[in-house]
Amino acid sequence: MTKLVFVYGSMKKDFCNHKWWMNDAVFVERVGMSGYKLYDTGRRYPVVVKDTSAFVFGEVYKVSEEIYTRLLQVEIIAGYNVEFVDGVYIFYFSSLNTLIQKFGGDIKEAGEEWLWKEGR
Q1: What domain range includes position 85?
Q2: 48, 70, 96, 107: which is deepest, by most CB within 10 A?
């Protein structure tokens, strides 16, 4: 059985974690999702936080149950929540406060650096 997963940062095609997580996945489409805001953690990956006034761009991949289970385990341990929205799973943080507790005060709104490859 396969699942659809929305990725918005380092797991997107041509970004640093794609080869580790999405290499065997099947690309479905590029989409935007409302209700989430993208933040730069100052590390090699961004995160999204629930925000009803925001919108984030990303990619949808069809993944095996095995890949999904590994993703779920790693992301939940890292503090993410998972939500099933319009047939797609997305991993996110529930609030900006939760994000700051996890990563410290260096959090900033992400810009176009996560839309395009450019060395990420």
Answers
A1: 2-107
A2: 48
Could you read off the pLDDT of 48-82 as tens digits, one per residue? 899 999 989 999 999 999 999 999 998 888 888 99
Supply the CATH number for residue 19's domain.
Answer: 3.10.490.10
Predicted structure pTM score: 0.85
CA distances (Å), origin 43, targets 40, 46, 106:
8, 7, 10
- What is the average per-residue pLDDT within 43-47? 77
Q: Report if residue 113 sits inside a domain.
A: no
Distances (CA, A) of 78 to 27, 30, 62, 71: 25, 25, 22, 11
